[in-house]
Amino acid sequence: MGQRMNRRRFLWGAASAAASGVLVGRVGAGPAGADPAPPIKLPTIFHSPEMVKYVDEMSVPSTITSSPTQPIEIVARTTSTRFHRDQPRVPTMAYNDEPYLGPTVEAHVGEQTTVHYRSELAEHIFAADLDTSLHGVTERYRGQPVTSMHLHGGVTPPEFDGNPERLMLPHHGTAVFEFPNRQEAGHLWYHDHAMAITRANVYAGLAGMYFLRDGHDTGTSGNPLGLPAGEHEIPLILQEKIFRVDGHQSLRSTPVVPQGMWEGGAVGDRGLVNGKVWPTMTVDRGLYRFRLINAASFSVWNLFFSNRMPFWVIGNEGGLLNAPVRTRSFAAAPAERFDLLVDFSSLAPGETVELCNDLAPPFQAAMLGEVVMSRFCRFVAGADRGDRRPVPTTLRGGRGQPARIPPIATPQRVRHVSVSQPYELRVPPAIMSLNNLRYADPQIEKPRAGTTERWDIINITPDPHPIHLHLVMFRILGRRPLRTVAYQAANPQPPIGTRWAPDPSAFYAGPMRGPAAWEAGSKDTVHAVGGHVTSIVVRFPTADELGFDPDAIFSSDPTQSWTRPSGGHAVAPSASGQHRHAAATPVHGMVTKDLQGYVWHCHILDHEDHDMMLRYRVVS
């Protein structure tokens, strides 16, 4: 790696050791369902105040049903909530009338969802924590927080995709978003995506579910697939948080990093489900469908039930699997969604079972004293027998079912991309990077429309990084261990700003391991394991297939609705259906400009903010 990098690694290790004052080993899990040892109260880590588990009822977000003839409203607001019975109401950000998070949107395949979006946010609840040294962040954002609503998993025209530079100021008009929904039924979600403050906005509460239905997966009791519906289909939005002594959410995890400076991510010590800390839910003794998402900013979890009972994974982000996959646990990285069937019929009335995690934090986090967060919620068996239908044997390919998922296509091109954490002289002494580049660097990926590519995601760090591609779904081909030291010694990493993703094929440490059965469907986010090359296969669609130009140029002002083909003149539809030229001019004190394409990034939100996100274009 060179003398310079070695010195930086030494500085990071010295800084970490000085900060912790003690070297803390990894914290493992105890017996199934048992809590680990209490957190080590090191002075370098903030800890939440004590809270009693399982005293709050689990809440369920309200639902908005999309109509192709009637726009729906999504409004970002500053509000407040009580995360736990024994804590005060504290400031949050949310969509519509929810006290935290947003309503679940239900839409239908082939029917466009039109959203009228506006922001009524007051001063940012994390105003003092925003780092104005990051890309594009200004002092103005403290009092007037910008937002950019992104439909995660949506096959969406670029101007409606929630580009991180297409920013909305509070009280400055209404933006129109058009989501075609021309894709398979699946589990999407919407959340804020504003440049370099995404973590602050999402952590504050700007996220919600989006279920895309079709004639097979109707979400009603008459569902042709025989899936639980109504009160037996429940969204589970899993998060992690640290709370201050006064009960407020803490965006900070350590006093080592001064307030107002970016952190590299932190493990929470309180598990939340649907905005409540360690809630409880009374369930019928029958079958439930849980639409689960890891909506955390940082942690990967290994999820299981405390009694180790089996359950079934029936779908990923892009829709149903061919058949239910029976398992007792699965790993969920940030932004990954899992469609689950859970049968509580074996429980006696009053018997309880908890949703648990036993995956320890990454080494550097554990070294600073962060420990496994082991609990999310408790389910209590009620007296009612509930839904006693059997678990389906198949979900695709049969009569009245969607077509089977086809085999993974043969790629026409292999593209190497890298994940690294270069060091710089700052606290903390690192940034996050894809391809050894920053977001603004011009060397971007340009896959050709209509082609199928294999992306080899080369993660030279020891940490997991969930990688998300906008616009497309993909399939996981597999993961191979990498001899990272030898790889880097043979290919010294240049200073950041020079693209770096050498071919790893001469440095594999073992064979490729295919995806787990429960992650074998269509996905938009992949868990790129530390020290591995994770290979995905993705087809980049054409404009004819999409019904829109994925490479169109559009305005950075979301209140302006105009696009133009690549290399063409900017035009915008007028009320009469004619077109006018549109110019890039200052709007609301922000300079508008041309934007083009989509982004791909790590979904650890701190990493995305600095600077593990790059642009890409689908070119013709």
TrEMBL record:
PROSITE patterns xrefs: TAT
Domain Plastocyanin-like: 147-214, 435-537
Keywords: Signal
Top-level taxon: Bacteria
Signal peptide: 1-34
Gene3D superfamilies: Cupredoxins - blue copper proteins
Record keyword Cell inner membrane present: no
Gene Ontology molecular function: copper ion binding; oxidoreductase activity
Region (Disordered): 557-582
Keyword NAD: no
Similarity remark: Belongs to the multicopper oxidase family.
This protein's name: Multicopper oxidase domain-containing protein
Organism: Gordonia aquimaris
